[in-house]
Structures are given as structure tokens and as C-alpha cells.
Amino acid sequence: MRRILSILGILIVAFMSLACDCEEEFLDEFDADMVVEGKVISIESATDGLYRIYVTTSDSVVEIYTPDDTEICGYPFVMGEDYIIFGYYNEEDNFFGQEGTYYTTLCSYTMSMEEWDAIMGE
Q: Looking at residue 59, which CATH number applies to its domain?
């Protein structure tokens, strides 16, 4: 019994270490390099564990990246849904994409327009 509890404890700690931890990673909305409101029109697998998201706005189509798993803070976009997206510029090639691209995560203020409207009281 003691062995089972030890194994269970190890598994719980391992699972918790894989989960997204926004307390340490939370991005400041006032530091966002881009804020757009739009509808997700495409979600594609990109290289190295990223999704490439295309969002149509009132006057353009925006490309933004997010990790492909919520456990590593990827934002769970849904095709056809409307979002307000806080994007951050990649100044160099890194985990979030290539230099010159934008990314968002669960640790930004990105959210569905439904959530945004509820917060804003609309």
C-alpha cells in the first residue's frame, strides 16, 4: 500500500510539473505588441509544437502562433469563434516561432469575445 501511495504521489507531482503555470509566465496586456479582434478562420500545425492561427479582422488577416498544447500554455482556439487576441512580437527565433512573427498563450489576456463581453459588461 505504501508503494502505491508513493507512486501515486510521484505521478501527481509529475503531472503538476507539466501543467501551464501562468503565475510565473503571465504576460502584461499593456506590453502586448498587437491587439486584434477577429474570427479564427484557420488552425494549422506548424513546426516544433506550434499551431499557426489565421484570424480575420475588419480589414486584414492576421497570422499568430501558439503552442499546440494547453499544458505548455497554448491557447485553445476554436475554428469559427471570435476572439480578442493579445499578441507578442518574436524578436528572434524561439519556441514561440520565427523572428518577425507574433504569438499568444494562455498566459496573455487573449480570450473569446463572449468572455470579453461578459467582463466588460456588454
A: 2.40.50.120
Please give the Cα distance from 76 to 73 (Å, whole number): 9
Q: What is the pTM of this model?
A: 0.76
- Residues 6+ positions from 108 with CB-CB distance below 8 Å: 27, 29, 32, 75, 86, 87, 88
* DSSP-derived secondary structure for 28-90: PGGG-SEEEEEEEEEEEE-STTEEEEEEE-SS-EEEEEEES-GGGT-----TT-EEEEEEEE-
The count of domains in the chain is: 1
What is the structure's pLDDT at 92? 84
If one counts every other C-beta atom within 10 angstroms of the C-beta of residue 96, the result is: 20
Per-block mean pLDDT, blocks of 10 residues, the chain (122 long): 42 46 61 92 89 93 94 94 94 82 90 92 78
Instruction: Give the integer Cα–Cα distance in Å for 52 and 119.
Output: 27
- Confidence (pLDDT) at 8: 36
Q: For residue 42, what are the domain limits?
A: 2-120
